[in-house]
Amino acid sequence: MSEPHATLAEEAAKLDAADELRAKRAEFVLDDSDNDSDSDDSDGTVYLDGNSLGALPAAVPARLADVIGREWGRLRIRSWEESGWWTAPERIGDRIGRLVGAAPGQVVVGDSTSVNVFKAVVGAVRIAQARAAAGEEPRDGTRGGSPEESRGGTRDEILVDESTFPTDGYIAESAARMTGCTLRPVPAPDIAAAVGPRTAVALVNHVDYRTGRLHDLPGTTAAVHAAGALVVWDLCHSAGALPVGLDAHGVDLAVGCTYKYLNGGPGSPAYLYVAREHQPRFDSPLPGWNSHADPFGMAPAYAPADGALRGRVGTPDILSMLALEAALEVWDGVSPDAVRAKSLALTDFFLRCVEAYVPAGRVESVTPAAHQERGSQVALRCADAGEVMAELIRRGVVGDFRRPDILRFGFTPLYTGFADVERAARVLAAVLAEAPGEVA
Questions:
Q1: What is the per-residue pLDDT for 44?
Q2: Where are the beta strands (DSSP E) in 316-414?
């Protein structure tokens, strides 16, 4: 091992030894010897794709076996009450709420992120339009435009982060048609300046899925409120990687998936946050029997339940929901601040290793260097990114590729170590050295 490699490898070992979260790694199924590579470069699997699918928490298989064998197999329908199935969406929602800074009673788990984006955006537009029609002052006492502009149902614009994950954009467009609004794509950093007297809601990603850029949730939320509008945040790439502070920053609504940094498993149910102050007016566009005030009354007319239950639709997907609940046990005793500190340390170290190891001009980081603008991933632009990632995976370093030229590496602080980071950069350098090229 060359001198720079040895120095950084030694530093990685010291950082791992001092890591306050290092014991959490044992709570995941991470068999580093399980690697199909036939390359001499491989000495174990480094998993850096937790920003797409989190690793399996070790407690999940036994919990699912109990759910299937005892709760479903023996208790059967009795489990809706005796095993707590019916209340799982709110119970698990409160557990997620602690990780995103939401007090109990504001988060409900169920459906996919896409479905929850639809509920949140349409529900937010309806709140904004009803508030404008009634001539109500926004909660901070400011108003976007004149009183005449803010009354009479003129909130007919939806702003969307123009680089959003595609499904958010598709659904925002559909929501705009459904509510009689105009959809206006805007760069996420410019939304604070773009929001105006006709804006009903802004839909913004907390972290950009391609670049890992962290957007200004407190500042954007405050600016949207100052204009009299509401904001919906997509937390898919931030929840479980950094503190969010939904209540502290006055967020109106938020959605997120649970299979990335929350490690809930493939296709695990998403969640919907509706701030307590908006719950009495939250008018879901998907009013299912599970969100009825008396679901077993089977009344022909819909009457919404109180609180976060309004976000429910149909029968909960119990197997995946209870797998998620077991997965969330790894967060017991973990501080989101400690997770954020390690996340930044991991990404800082990875960038240093890439700079030290990778041939000059071969990759370019598109992830911001500033901590306040960085999530928990690093994205590198590379001319032949697809082929490079395929070779990295063959050699036991698992990240992912986004067309046309982005290598993505996700850093999950609960199970990623600094030795993983150093090895990933070293293997990346070896792969790139064998296939010379320039940044596209």
A1: 78
A2: 364-365, 377-381, 397-398, 400-402, 406-410
Both structure tokens of 398 = 């698992």
Q: Does the model's pTM come out above 0.85?
A: yes
Mean per-residue pLDDT pooled into runs of 10, the chain (440 residues): 83 98 97 53 81 98 98 98 98 98 98 98 98 79 46 82 97 98 98 98 98 98 98 98 98 98 98 98 98 97 97 98 98 97 98 96 97 98 97 97 97 98 98 76
Residue 329 has what DSSP assignment?
Answer: G
Q: Are 194 and 144 in contact (CB under 8 A)?
A: no
The structure tokens 């976060």 sit at 308
Q: What is the pLDDT of residue 151?
A: 43
- Per the annotation, binding residues are 113-114, 165-168, 234, 237, 259, 289, 315
Q: How are beta strands 107-109 and 271-274 bridged, if at all? A: antiparallel
CATH of 86-331, one of 3.40.640.10, 3.40.50.740, 2.10.109.10, 3.30.420.40: 3.40.640.10
Active-site residues, by number, are: 165, 234, 259-260, 408
Q: What share of the chain is helix, strand, coil (3-state, %, to 5)?
A: 45, 15, 40
339: its two tokens: 């997770």
Cβ–Cβ < 8 Å for 139, 225? yes
* Residue 95 CA: distances (Å) to CA of 164, 240, 326, 329: 27, 12, 11, 9
Q: Which residues are annotated as a binding site for pyridoxal 5'-phosphate?
A: 113-114, 165-168, 234, 237, 259, 289, 315
User: Which of 112, 374, 134 has the alpha carbon at shortest distance from 237?
Assistant: 374
Of 424, 241, 239, nearest to 343 by C-alpha is: 241
Give the C-alpha separation, 426 to 245, whole Å. 36
User: What pLDDT, on a 0 to 100 scale, did the predictor assign at position 139?
Assistant: 57
Cα–Cα dist 52/206, whole Å? 16
- What residues does each domain of the chain span? 5-58+334-434, 86-331
DSSP 126: H
- Report the pLDDT value the prediction gives residue 435, as an integer from 0 to 100: 79
Q: What is the DSSP letter of 180?
A: T
Radius of gyration of the chain (CA): 23
Could you please state the CATH topology (level 3) that the domain comprising 5-58+334-434 is classified under.
Aspartate Aminotransferase, domain 1 (3.90.1150)
3-state DSSP assignment of residue 270? coil
CA 60, chain centre distance (Å): 21
d(CA 435, CA 440): 14
Tokens coding 178? 């459904």
